[in-house]
Amino acid sequence: MSSLKEGDKAPNFTAKDQDGKTVSLSDFKGKDVVLYFYPQDDTPTCTKEACNFRDNYQSLVSKGLAVIGVSFDTEKKHKKFITKYNLPFPLLADPDKKIIEAYGVWGEKMLFGRNYMGTLRTTFIINKKGIIIHIIDKVDSGNASQQVLDLLQQIKK
């Protein structure tokens, strides 16, 4: 679980996207950002989450949101994943886990009764000023974009 909390300044980062382009959080100043961390490209649950963001991308963009995915996969692997599923948003390569660790989403997981270290599926909503306004640590992969939209609705009330 991340040591970051709502109200904290989001750690800035710089990484390469699927096209080898350098992307920083500061590039999105003046925009609200959905920064989602996921374990691995082209695995069933991660694909479900990415496709859910894809399918609802226009709804998110119409609310002024930018969507960015991060995993420790390489730029090349991200490119294949984006092409295969026609994803309209950047995926950042974080093979050295600098962003993953800065956001505190590297931790112990369990699969088939075996403990191992991995990326904890987590979504951060960051406002125009670079402040974390919400952290979703119980991501519903098939409904990830709706979780974001529902939270924004609550925050705006």
Describe the structure.
The structure is a single chain. With 157 residues, the protein is of the alpha+beta class. It has a single domain (39-156), classed as Glutaredoxin, CATH 3.40.30.10. The protein has five helices and nine strands; from the N terminus they run βββααβαβαββββα. The chain has helices spanning 44-55, 57-62, 75-85, 98-102, 144-156; strands at residues 14-17, 22-24, 32-37, 65-71, 91-93, 106-111, 114-119, 122-126, 132-136. Strands 2-1-5-4-3-8-9 form a seven-stranded mixed sheet. β6 (106-111) and β7 (114-119) form a beta hairpin. The model has no long low-confidence stretch (mean pLDDT 93).
Fraction of residues in β-strands: 25-35%
With strands numbered from the N-terminus, the spatial order across the biggest sheet is 2-1-5-4-3-8-9
Span between termini = 27 Å
Shape: globular
Question: Could you say how many structural domains there are in total?
Answer: 1
**What Rg is obtained from the alpha carbons, in whole angstroms?**
14 Å
By CATH's scheme, which homologous superfamily applies? Glutaredoxin
**Fraction of helical residues:** 25-40%
Number of helices: 5
Number of strands: 9
What is the arithmetic mean of pLDDT? 93
Can you identify the CATH class? Alpha Beta
CATH structural fold name: Glutaredoxin
The biggest beta sheet is recorded as: 7 strands, mixed
* Poorly predicted residue ranges: none
Strand pairing plus helix content: what structural class? alpha+beta
